Structure formats: C-alpha cells, structure tokens
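Hey, can you fold this?
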Amino acid sequence: MRRRVLIQSALLAGGYLLSGGVRATTYLSVSEAQQLIWPGLALSPAAVMLTAAQQKAIKKASGVRVRSVELNAWRTPAGDWFIVDQVIGKHEFIDVAVGISHAGEISGIEILTYRESYGHEVRNPKWRAQFHGRNATGLLELDQQIRNISGATLSCSHITDAANRLLKTWQLVLSAR
C-alpha cells in the first residue's frame, strides 16, 4: 500500500512538471533591462564586495538579510547604478534589476525572470512605477507606500524588501564610490 502511494505521488508530480505547472519565464536580458532603465547609456561592470560589517549595517538599516557578499552591479558614467538581484517569490526566485540614480533614487525596477506559476502581476508597469523616485530615507512598506497585489502578496513584499535593501546598500556603501 505504501509503495503504491509513493508511485502514484511520483507520477502525479511528474505529470505536474510535464504539464507546465512549474515554469520560468524570462522577460528581459540584463542588457535589455539596462537599456530600459538607463536608455542610451554605456554601463561598466562594477566589482562590489560587501564586508561582514557592511552586510550587518545594511541588514540593520533595511531589516532585510543580505544573502550575497557580491553585488551584481554596473555603473553609468554619471555614477548611476544598475543592480541585478534575486528575491524569493512564494517558492521560487525572481530575478530583478534595479536602477538607482547618483542621487540615491530608484529610477526603475524591471522583472528579468519570473519562476512562479502565479503572481506575475508584479510585472505591471503601474505597480513597478510606485518605486520610481523612492530613496533611502525611511523604509518602504507594503500597503503603505507600495500597494499590494492580491494573489502576488509574497512577490510584492519581497520585491519591496529588495528595494529597501538596495537603497540602504546605496546609502551605506555605493554612494561613497
């Protein structure tokens, strides 16, 4: 009986995977997102390694744990930043790109790859536009400065957390570069 249940479970899981229940959709490449956020500008890769002290300070300021010591970042000639990051949706990672101006304001957020089977509404330009012009003074909160999307609550929350973490990273680390 137990073996039969295990076999049926495996077959159901396999069928779910084959049916497209789990999918990843890539909407933009890094270079396409760079041109959407910083149109016409040449960006140069910027090697940024966070020290343990910087990670701790960013976590304290943003309330969000820093998962990687290396930022996947580029700079414009004017000192604006373009950062590619990953956040968790409900179960899977979402690849996002965030532009932060030399003045420390968000210039754009783009969804590069979305791996969840629902919640893709975070790609809506009107929802992402809520972040434009936001800076590191204070923290953005879901259902306060940033509207939630029903059915995409965790994606909305975690993208908001990423914006807070990256703004604090700019304030504490990148603004001095």
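Oh, and this one too while you're at it.
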Amino acid sequence: MSSLNPVEPFDLIIFGGTGDLAMRKLLPAIYRRDEAGQLPDPSRIIGIARAPMEVSEFQQRLYSALNKYLGADPDETVWRRFSSRLSYLDLDVTDKTAQNWRGLHTLLEADANPVRAAYLSVSPRIYGAIASGLSANNLVTDDMRLVLEKPIGIDQDSANAINEAVGRYFNENQIFRIDHYLGKETVQNLLALRFGNAIFEPLWRREVIDHVQITVAEELGVGNRVEFYEHIGALKDMVQNHLLQLVCLVAMEPPVSLDVDAVRSEKIKVLKALKPISGADVLTQTVRGQYRAGAVDGVAVDGYEDELTEASNTETYVALKLEIENWRWSGTPFYLRTGKRLPEKRSEIVIRFKPVPHSIFSGLQPNGLRISLQPDEGVKLTTMVKEPGPGGFELEAKDLDLSFAEAFGGATYPDAYERLIIEVLRGNPTLFMHRDEVAWAWRFIDNITEGWQNEGQKVEKYFAGSWGPHGASNLLDRDGRAWQADL
C-alpha cells in the first residue's frame, strides 16, 4: 500500500518536545510509523524545550509515555531503533543569538538529512520568534517544512499577525497548518464517497437534501486546560477549525483533481459563501451552553465553574445553524453542535434527504446517510423496505451498514497524527490549511463572538451527561427538525 511507502531520511525538530501534545500524540505517532517500518535510517527526531535535560532522561520520559498512551511497553527491537533516533536540546526560542542556537545548528549541520521539518508544538504567541530564530541562524532550507498547531490565533487579526510573522521566513508551500480531523480516515473518505461514487453526486444538492447535521461530542471536561479554555471557549476551540473543515468537505464543489491547490480552492469557496451570523441573528441561530455538575457513565463530575473556581460565561457547548449562499446549498441548513461532558464521545455527519414527493405508503421516513468519524468509523444509509410476511404492505427503516472495521478485516487505522506527520515529511500539503482558509474561518467566527458580546448572550447551563442545553433542541425544533441520535 502506498501509505506504507518509506519517506526520505529526515530531521524532525519538535519544539515543545516535552509537552503534553508531543508526549501524548506526536512522538507516539512517529513511533508507530517506525514500528510499521516506514522511517528510514538515518532519520532523526530532535526534541526542543527550555528545561536542561540529558538525552537519556528524554528517552525515559518518552518510554513511559508510550507505555501509557499505547497501552503496553514498546517492542524492544523497535524501541532500540527508535530511541537511537532521539536527541534533545534545551533552547530559549525567544533569544535568536547564535550562541543560543549553536547546539541545534551543530546537530543539524552534522550528517544533515535531505528532509528537514520543524513542528511547533508550543504557544502560537512564539511561532514568529521560532521562525525568526531558525532564519537568523541559517537553519531554513529551501524546502524545509514548518508545522503550526491550532489554534492559529484567537481571532482574524491575531491569525493574520501569526501568518505574517512566519511568512517572512517561509513560503506558503512550506507552511503546514495542522487540523488533526483532516487526518482521520473517515474524513478523507468523504472525498471518496462523494466523488468516487456516481450514485451520490446527483443527490448532493439542495433539491434532494433537507438538511445536514454535524456533531462532535466529547465525554471529557476541560480538565487541566481550564485556564486556557476560559479564554477560548468551544466556538474558537472546535468550530473555527474542526467543524468548519467538515462543513467544507461536505459542501465543496468537485475539485478538478486531488492537487492541493484544487482542493483548497474549493474549500475556501465554501467559507466565503457562509452567510454571516451577526447582530441579533446570534439569538436565533446560535446556542451557548456550559456544563454544570452531573454524571457521565454513572460517575459524578464537577461543573465547569467548579473546576475554574469562579463564575464564568465561557461556553463549553455551542450549536449553530449555518447557511451557505451558493447555487448548490441555498436554503439547505447545516446544523453544527459540539460540547464537553456529553453522554458519549461521538463525531458524525448526518445527511437527511427530503421525503418522497408523494407517498403511497404509511409510516414512510426520509432516507438518511450517517457518516461516523469516531469511535466506530463507517457509513450507514437508511432505506425503507417492506416487512416480510403476508400481514400487509408495511414498511420499516433498515440500514445498509458499511463498518470499516468489518469491511477491511478488522483492520485498525493509524492515528490521524501518524498520517499527517508522514504527509509533512513527504511535503504534501493537501490535508493542511491554507492561510486563506484560516482567515475566512476567523472572519465568520468573529462575527458571532461580536454578536454575542453586543447582544449580551449568556451561556445556558446543562447537566454533565446530558446532550446539552434545551436551546440546542429548540434551534432545530423551530424548523420542524430534531437532532438525530440514530438513523
């Protein structure tokens, strides 16, 4: 399979190499690719952080992290090979003097590999400082890749400032803005489903589809991110990137090819076509919620304000009604919801088709297409079939169920970060965001936050373990619709 083709030997520098994301996601993902035989010698992984540390301590920390997050001790042979690739340097990235960067300069110049990538797993506030330091110390090669983690800013102005800061030293085709949802197997299968099957494309339009629902639900609360989350909230943390990217993939026009510019161009068109939600419209088209104490899976949990230890108007749940003003989707609403402390972890896209124009049957239900992104990846198409037997002509809704795990022999799929890191090393930016995508997404989000502030929209409390505030149900109920728990 092409996904297992080795990459060229590389030097991967992880700024923030001892942080939570690096230990929980990035380094385990790279280890998995080494386990699969995808990393060539003499590839190197260089952890960068401020704290002085011996390489042996860095290796031991990672070994413990692999045990924790992969559920078992690393394979002895794989670990020996992988750990030999690891280096560690302490570095103050805000100081771009040659003396401060000498260790990294020396390491990279010795036995330099053909591919060089820097992963910025740090606060976006210092993205520009790192780019400047790399450039000032002659560490930026012509095809070097720079990976930026979300969030890219907290609004359009700050996002533009970050993109300008790194853009002084890196060309746009060198910058990889990561959204791990785009690395999920089922998210990519949206393209295959829509553009690889002739039965769907003629139906993918306002004349046939009644509405679209996108749900990203989490059981967990904000945990130790409470201080960070208080300044961000669910709208900026989840909708600006993950959910709007899903909207783009569902709503985009067929690209002329899978070329990066062709795909990105169609996604940007969707973002430009989003009807702004501003002013008093936020009161009827958006819902803000915040979890209070309750129970998830039978376990009592604190409310958000209990974790913060003070009163707050920050949303941990948000629901939106979007409209896309173009020929394909005009008049077809997209309903989005995401929240923490919900009953289960679930990410899915539900396409609800319009009813048949004239029914000769009783109890007829509209068809539906459910695309499950996690935890059980697959696609279900709900159709109406006759109940067997001589008792009459009664119809019942049944699913044509494509479970990816069953269809592909119980195969497990790589974590999204595994795929995305490999695509960075290959220099393929298709699954990453262009700066214009970031800017247009923030423009849409900024209108909502300004509307919330001007209209004084407060959060509506919901019990942890519920499906969110009552206002979210009312959002669809006003249109004669309901959230689909199951098809």
